[in-house]
Amino acid sequence: MPEWRGVSRTTARTYCVNVYQAEKKKLKKLAAKVNKISLTTDCWKSKNQKMEYMVITGHWIDQNWQLQKRVLNFVHIPPPRRGLEIADVIWCCLEDWDIQSKIHTIFVDNASANDSAIYHLKTYAQRKEKLLCVGRLFHVRCCAHILNLIAQDGISEIKSIVEVIRDSVEYVRRSDARAFVIF
């Protein structure tokens, strides 16, 4: 029998919350020293729970010119996930970390809800005159998402050709005589 005693759920929760609060305090001090921060955000639905989540990650260059990134928020967003709700969650996160005036750009995928969210975020930030270059650099579409869309479109264009080639190869492989004639 191992000499290990389990801890209660309350004890584990308290410990996790305390560690989180201590790390958040350290990160807030670090964020206070940063001049500009770029954000990435992504939403997805869990397969098992059927719940929708959003993660907000901050990216910046430190004093040693090293890229730093930290998860700033991970939150459940109940459906329907519309632009205004996404913008409100992001803005609350920025206020919580006190970085609303430090945002350089936000990278999002091409979802229409994200376009709406960026519109609302720009409105919030412009009210407080917090945008660099009057917001022209604020919204950046995710290049990886765009490349994925391009690749998927290209694959769909050649799908029927690939199927014909596969069927032809399979036809030849089924018979030694046909393979001998071709090769």
From TrEMBL:
Broad class of the protein's primary localization: nucleus
Compartments it resides in: Nucleus
One GO CC annotation: nucleus
GO molecular function: zinc ion binding
Domain of life of the native organism: Eukaryota
SUPFAM superfamilies in the cross-refs: Ribonuclease H-like (SSF53098)
Name the record gives this protein: Zinc finger BED domain-containing protein RICESLEEPER 2
Keywords: Metal-binding, Nucleus, Zinc, Zinc-finger
